[in-house]
């Protein structure tokens, strides 16, 4: 179990609550708080939207960091065995969860998508402008 406190992340035993590991977070930018999310077995921490760093959930060991486009508010989510990076402009990048490197990228692949993407199984589901959802098949 992971808990985020004021400036640190704690890994605790889910049965006993015993503290197993801690990780200090550097101070965030003045107007940009840290944002955390889980994607598969990764804890992703964004420093106000400019950089994302991935940590292994079970050990809090750092796997990778990569810059984010400062003009976008990208969505990060699990898609199969990978991490998907969905940009506001409609681009979609598939990241290697071990290295953070882009495996492949499609620019303008998801026209009209405004966010809320999920990839359950072999499909990608995203909210489109107007409120409807679009569904795309993920070929593996």
Shape category:
globular
Which regions are unreliable across 5 or more consecutive residues at pLDDT < 50?
none
Residue fraction in strands: over 45%
CATH topology of the largest domain: Lipocalin
Element-by-element helix/strand order: EEEEEEEEEEEEEE
- Give the C-alpha Rg: 16 Å
- The CATH class label of the largest domain is Mainly Beta
From the structure above, extract its key features.
140 residues; mainly beta; Lipocalin; Thrombin, subunit H; 4-stranded antiparallel sheet; 14 strands; 0% helix; globular
Note down, in words, how this protein is organized.
This protein is mainly beta. It has two domains: 68 residues, Lipocalin (Beta Barrel); 68 residues, Beta Barrel (Thrombin, subunit H). The chain is 0% helix and 53% strand. The protein contains no helices and 14 strands. The protein has a four-stranded antiparallel β-sheet, with no helix packed on it. It has a four-stranded antiparallel β-sheet with strand order 8-9-10-11, with no helix packed on it. The protein is globular. The model has no long low-confidence stretch (mean pLDDT 79).
Task: Provide a short characterization of the protein structure.
0% of the residues lie in helices and 53% in strands. It folds into two domains: 1-68, Lipocalin (Beta Barrel); 73-140, Thrombin, subunit H, CATH 2.40.10. The chain has 140 residues and is mainly beta.
How are the elements arranged and paired?
Blueprint: E1 2-4, E2 8-12, E3 19-24, E4 34-39, E5 42-47, E6 51-56, E7 62-67, E8 75-79, E9 82-86, E10 92-95, E11 102-106, E12 113-118, E13 123-128, E14 133-137
